[in-house]
Specification:
The structure holds two protein chains of two kinds. Chain A is α/β, with parallel strands linked by helices. Chain A is built from nine helices and twelve strands. In chain A, the strands form four sheets. Chain A has a four-stranded mixed beta sheet, with helices on both faces. Chain A has a four-stranded mixed beta sheet with strand order 4-3-2-6. Chain B is an alpha+beta fold. In chain B, 22% of the residues are buried. The chains are: A alpha/beta, B alpha+beta. Chain A: It comes from Carboxydothermus hydrogenoformans (strain ATCC BAA-161 / DSM 6008 / Z-2901).
């Protein structure tokens, strides 16, 4: 599997000797173009058209983030697995209200079930989250009745809010209190971690979409609009609890991430470079972790699990097999 | 699979071999590169290299591992290169 490269230093990324070359103060490094799948840019990185053209030829995706570590955008090379047929199918499932709501419900259900797995895991370990479990289950039961995408998004929001409120019980760490969900920029440490993790997951899913015939511009739960990719947001919902939140729990539980890893800006908090590196190391570790896939009967990594989810969606759109979201077993 | 590439070639061709190997593997130190590589890319790399080197004069060695599971690495002195994903 091609690797993800994270650039934090300020410097210059270029094409050199038919491969990638990164140069910054006191650092010169060639990156094997055949081994790089995506590049995450956090630092002040200079590049030119020649580089972008080279990335496009080699099907390398480039994501860039702002100072807060907030996802800003992606250089998405000219589609390589173009499929007009798949786009038509995607559009058809978006425009047809009943087809769209089916997929929307499936995504919310998948997300809620994974949330329940996380909560139940902690309930077993003696954390008092039973009331949150019950609430989430109640909302989950209403998902089947939701008639409109907006209703569905509302339920999704309720589920997530209930779930985030359980974080304080699970973590029991005074430094990392949930309070309420804040964004752009987040207003406390825990929210900063949630935002940063979600950003990383959105781009990881986008990278996987690139390897399929799907078009990231047409989402089902998140309405397609004029400005952004939405399909990656949809699929990310299913994986947030098992990838992002578990990363957060590990980092805080092991007391690896501390107050010092945050800096306060004019409006909110951001992770320092050191903090971002810590988070990414754990996040990458999580994506690489393999689990025994019940149907394939072999070990697959979480990253590949995301791709499998997209293949399932393709099959659904083509009318071969109804989409069933992935639900973690523990 | 994981591959360690070691080469000893005529000075005239050192640059060419290095340039080609860098497309697939991470430079470790003079005349040594390493990295994870797919079967297909490994074949491509060998193809490209065999077109560059002089069969009667140069030598390129590959140490091939299924994975790095039962291996460890020790270093004396300074670290010159190697694989990183955070820069």
């Amino acid at each position: 599997m091609r690797k993800a490269i994270y650039l934090f230093s300020d410097g210059k990324l270029q094409r050199k000797g038919n491969t990638l070359y990164f140069e910054s103060e006191g650092l010169k490094k060639y990156l094997p173009v055949e081994d790089v799948g995506e590049i995450f840019v956090f630092g002040e990185v200079e590049f030119n058209r020649k580089l972008v053209e080279f990335l496009s030829q080699n099907e390398i995706i480039l994501h860039y983030f702002n100072h807060y570590g907030y996802y800003m955008g992606t250089f998405y090379p000219r589609e390589h697995y173009n499929s007009g047929y798949m786009i038509l199918k995607q559009a058809e499932h978006f425009s047809d209200q009943s087809k769209r709501i089916f997929l929307g419900r499936a995504i919310v259900k998948g997300s809620a079930r994974n949330i329940l797995q996380v909560l139940k895991y902690y309930a077993q370990r003696g954390k008092e989250v039973e009331s949150n479990v019950e609430l989430v289950e109640n909302y989950l039961n209403k998902v089947t009745e939701a008639k409109e995408p907006n209703e569905l998004l509302g339920l999704e929001g309720n589920i997530r809010e209930t779930y985030y409120q359980a974080f304080d019980v699970i973590l029991q760490d005074k430094t990392f209190l949930y309070e309420k969900r804040t964004r752009r920029p987040p207003q406390n440490y825990l929210n900063t971690l949630i935002s940063f993790g979600n950003s990383l997951l959105y781009s990881a899913v986008l990278s996987e979409i690139y390897k399929t015939h799907l078009d990231p511009r047409i989402g089902f739960l998140h309405a397609t609009n004029f400005r952004s990719f939405t399909l990656n947001l949809d699929i990310a919902e299913i994986f947030k609890p098992i990838i992002v939140d578990r990363t957060i729990f590990s980092l805080i539980g092991r007391k690896e991430i501390k107050k010092e890893h945050f800096e306060k800006g004019l409006e909110g908090f951001a992770l320092t470079t050191e903090g971002k590196k810590l988070f990414i190391t754990e996040f990458e570790e999580k994506l690489k972790t393999t689990i025994k896939h019940p149907e394939l009967k072999r070990d697959v990594s979480y990253r590949f699990l995301i791709r499998l989810e997209l293949y399932k969606l393709e099959k659904h759109l083509l009318g071969e097999k109804p989409f069933e979201p992935f639900v973690s077993r523990w | 699979m994981f591959v360690i590439l070691v080469y000893d070639v005529n000075q005239k061709r050192v640059a060419k071999v290095l340039k080609t190997a860098r497309k697939y593997l991470y430079w470790v130190q003079n005349s040594v590169l390493e990295g994870e590589i797919t079967e297909a890319n490994f074949r491509r790399l060998k193809g490209e290299l065999s077109r560059i080197i002089n069969q009667d004069e140069d030598s390129v060695l590959f140490y091939i591992f299924g994975s790095m599971k039962y291996s460890s690495r020790e270093l004396l002195g300074i670290q010159k290169g190697g694989e990183t994903n955070m820069l």
